[in-house]
Input
Amino acid sequence: NAGVTQTPKFQVLKTGQSMTLQCAQDMNHNSMYWYRQDPGMGLRLIYYSASEGTTDKGEVPNGYNVSRLNKREFSLRLESAAPSQTSVYFCASSQDRLNNQPQHFGDGTRLSIL
Amino acid sequence: QKEVEQNSGPLSVPEGAIASLNCTYSDRGSQSFFWYRQYSGKSPELIMSIYSNGDKEDGRFTAQLNKASQYVSLLIRDSQPSDSATYLCAVTTGNTPLVFGKGTRLSVIA
Output
C-alpha cells in the first residue's frame, strides 16, 4: 500500500541546473499538491492540480513549473535552480479539494542547491 | 490572506499529562479542520479531522471546534514520549486548498 510516492528522496544540485521531482499516488485521488517546507515557515503551497488536466498556482509558484501527467502523476520542475530553493518538498493528494477531504503526504524530497 | 495561527512552542508536558494544542484561523467561511503530526525529518501524518462544532474523540486524541470563536484545539490525553512531534493545524473552506499553520512543537518529558 504505497500511497504517495516521491522520487528522488535526496538531491544536490548546482545553481542553474534543472531538476524534475516526481510524484505518483495509487489512491485514485483527483487532486494533487506540491509544498515546500522551510524551518520556521511551515508548509507553503507551490502548485496544485484539482483534477487531471488542470493546474493552479499556490502561495509560492515563482521558479517552478508543474505537469499533471495523468491522474496518478504530478511532477514539479525547477528550470534554473537557485540556493533559495533549498528546501524539503512534499507532494500530497486528496480525493477532491472541493469535498473537504484531507491530504495525504509523500515522504518528501530533500533538495540542496549549492 | 487566509491565516492559520499556532503557538510555535515548544510546549513541554510531563508523561501522562494532557497536552493542549491550539489553533486560530481568520476565514469565517472555513468548513473543514485537520490536525497533522510531523515527526522530525518525516512527512505530515493526518491524525484528526473535524467538521462541526463540538468535540470529536479518537483514542487519546480529542479535537475541539468552536466556529464562532474561530479556534480549533487538539487534546492529547495520557501523553507519551512518542507523542513528541510538531503538530500542524490545517483549515479549508472547501473551495481552496488547505491552509496550514506553522505548527506547535510538543515535547513530552518522561
